Amino acid sequence: MATSADNGAPALEARHLTLSWDEGEHVVARDVCLVVGAGEVVCLVGRSGCGKTTILHALSGLTQPLEGRVLLHGEDVTGRPGRVSYMLQKDLLLPSKRILDNVCLPLVIAGTPAREARAKAEPLFERFGLSGTERMWPSELSGGMRQRAAFLRTYLMGNDVTLLDEPFSALDALTRADMRSWYCGMSRELGMASLAITHDVDEAVTMADRIYVLRGDPRSGVPSAIAAEVAVPRPAGNVSAAEFALTPAFLDCKREVLGLLG
Ligand SMILES: Nc1ncnc2c1ncn2[C@@H]1O[C@H](COP(=O)(O)OP(=O)(O)OP(=O)(O)O)[C@@H](O)[C@H]1O
């Protein structure tokens, strides 16, 4: 696992988080520990309702854990929002703004003059596969292109840790597969630390370097916990995600994760 260059600490670390949505009345997850290094894509998988989003909220600082700490490059940021990027299923592009102005929004909100923000964003359009869309409206773009624009907007927030809450699930199957490959390549290339939650085991094995398996049933009073950490045997060289999905290594890993989910 890669660590940040400056102090050797992981980009993101959760230490013994215990979480609740109602200040301790109902515990959703207990003693959650995980790390994500720079240049890594990590998935957190678990059945619906087991507490994945609750964990992501705590990691983003939107909520305060009952116990435990969240560290960014070794710094305690527990309960402090705004330090990591957060990608949702919906792209949340503003329909009344052209794509260039949409992706510039975080910079403009942070006080960067619009002209300067555009100058910073424009050179990135090609890298994000968005060339030619600068002057277009969100309604003119396909779902995949809109999602790329949302990723560029997130990237411009300047955080090197990104949390993803099932960001591809609103896309059709083919676009979803393309976007996963594209995103993971981009995230690794830029040295970002990405943590994605999903209940789709195929998606997790396709995307991740490592998978944390979350198990429990908080609705029945059984708080979730990390049952295991599984390393994904990523194929060497230029093997496409579709080809990887047909290999024994992929199927073995998928079987292991499904077994752990119970
Ligand atoms: N405000 C709330 N009121 C009642 N129950 C809640 C609230 N917030 C979370 N929960 C409960 O906490 C548990 C965890 O919810 P969470 O959304 O984190 O799960 P999840 O794994 O992300 O689910 P999904 O995959 O369906 O999105 C669920 O059992 C849910 O019912």
TrEMBL record:
Molecular-function annotations in GO: ATP binding; ATP hydrolysis activity
SMART domains: AAA
Keywords assigned by UniProt, alphabetized: ATP-binding, Nucleotide-binding, Transport
ABC transporter domain: residues covered: 12-239
Domain of life: Bacteria
Entry-linked PROSITE patterns: ABC_TRANSPORTER_1, ABC_TRANSPORTER_2
Family annotation (InterPro entries): AAA+_ATPase, ABC_transporter-like_ATP-bd, ABC_transporter-like_CS, ABC_transporter_ATP-bind, P-loop_NTPase
Keyword Transmembrane helix recorded: no
SUPFAM superfamilies: P-loop containing nucleoside triphosphate hydrolases
Pfam families recorded: ABC_tran (PF00005)
Official protein name in the record: ABC-type nitrate/sulfonate/bicarbonate transport system, ATPase component
Lineage summary: Bacteria, Bacillati, Actinomycetota, Coriobacteriia, Coriobacteriales
